[in-house]
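An instance noted here:
***
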Amino acid sequence: MNLPESFENENVVVDTDSQYTYIGRLAAQQEGVICLEEAAMYNAAEGRVTLDQYLDECAAHGHAVSRQRVWVQTRRIVSLSMLSDIVKPGQASE
């Protein structure tokens, strides 16, 4: 998976084919993995809020770092977007 250069060193949201969604600064990409630094992980099985609510909060106020670095297998990635591209439901994007 080759990600756009514009994503490098930006905060991204990584949706996976598991219950985990990651948020962090895209620091590196290598064959089969990407590295996020200053990362947070949302576990849908344990979340007290919905993923949309969690992402809204992260986009508005930043994410609470729970991992200095996390490696995600690219074969598990369903989608990837910039955190700044998160749009609150019901509101038009700028």
